[in-house]
Amino acid sequence: MTPDSPLSAAEVVRLRHGTASVPRLAWLIARSTVYWIWQIFATLLMGGPVLIGALISFRVGYYFADWWIRLNMYGLRFICGVGWDVQGKENIPDKACVVLSKHQSTWDTYFIPMLFNPATYVAKRSLVWIPIFGWSLVFLRFILIDRKSGRSAVRQMVDAAADRLANGRWLIIFPEGTRRPVGAPPKYRPGGAIVASELGVNALPIALNAGEFWPRMGFIKWPGTITVRIGPVISGAGRTVDEVLAESTAWIEKNTHEISIFAEQS
After folding, report:
1. Which sequence spans correspond to the domains of the chain?
2. Residue 1: what pLDDT?
3. d(C-alpha 17, C-alpha 13), whole Å
4. CA angle 233, 238, 241 (to 5 degrees)
5. Please, are residues 173 and 249 in contact by the beta-carbon 8 Å criterion?
6. What confidence score (pLDDT) does residue 44 get?
7. How far apart are CA 165 and CA 38, in angstroms?
8. pLDDT digits (tens, 9 = 90+) for 122-174
9. What is the 8-class DSSP label of residue 236?
10. How far is the C-alpha of 108 from the C-alpha of 211, rounded, in Å?
11. Omega within 30 of 0 (cis) for the link into 6
12. Closest CA to 99 of 157, 188, 10, 171
């Protein structure tokens, strides 16, 4: 096996339990370090154009943001050997809708907008304090909510979602609210289901296994192919919040388990 060859599920298990070869592990750490430097470079290179472009128009700012994302994604593929395979593209509707995705990794936030352009996220307001990245969220009019505000935050989200969808922007929501460790019990919130139900729009579920290659709290990026599976649309028209939430949760969790590279090891 060469240092650049993809990892099997069994080898990933051995690596994470400290029983793999030291040279292999050192090589992975070195590659991940180079990628970390690449991310900083990409942010410094594209952050300014995103902010300045957004002052001109959303379209200009988003153009540079899209390049920022692609620099990160293709840098990850080239430097760390992390690729991706997308299943179910035929399920993507022609009209922008609510995208409900599993959230295991920072990778998710980079990649999903590559599938849905232009897109906007529903995110926590505290992210605005992150230099360049957080400022870009504001300039690109992402929906930033204060989770402590309760019902007023939900109302704000629904009203803003109606505006973004009316302007042809895909609305990306992580129903679990934050990155969850691989294999953690599901902890879904109703925000996305509320938007779909109240506005009578479609919800598109997405399952993925990104956390198995770019762990939530890990530094190493494990070589291999991330699987993204897009499900059939779930109609929000005439459906209750509980119905939309239950159907989307069941589909995402079932398919996340099916595409896990660790399923065969359990």
Report:
1. 83-265
2. 37
3. 6
4. 75
5. no
6. 93
7. 33
8. 877 777 888 888 888 888 888 888 766 667 778 888 999 999 999 999 999 99
9. -
10. 9
11. no
12. 171
CA atoms within a 13 Å half-sphere pointing along the CA-CB vector of 29: 8
Of 228, 17, 2, whose CA–CA distance to 103 is shortest? 228
Distance CA 253, CA 245 (A): 12
Select from 25, 59, 64 the least CA-distant residue to 42.
64
Q: Which two tokens stand for residue 260?
A: 């896990």
Q: How far apart are CA 257 and CA 248, in angstroms?
A: 14
Q: Is the pLDDT of residue 17 over 70?
A: no
Instruction: Say what the pLDDT of residue 217 is.
Output: 85
Rounded to 5 degrees, φ, ψ at 3 are -60, -25
Structure tokens at 141: 């009019």
pLDDT in tens, 46-68: 999 999 999 999 999 999 999 99
Residue-by-residue DSSP string for 1-17: --TTSPPPHHHHHHHHT
129, two tokens: 């304090």
Q: How many helices (H) and strands (E) does the chain have?
A: 8, 7
As a whole number, mean pLDDT of residues 19-24 equals: 67
Report long-range pairs for 43-50 (Cβ below 8 Å, ≥24 apart).
43/68, 43/132, 43/133, 44/132, 45/71, 46/71, 47/132, 47/133, 47/135, 47/136, 50/136, 50/139, 50/140
Structure tokens at 180: 């969850």
- 70-101 pLDDT, tens digit per residue, is 999 999 999 999 999 999 999 999 999 999 99
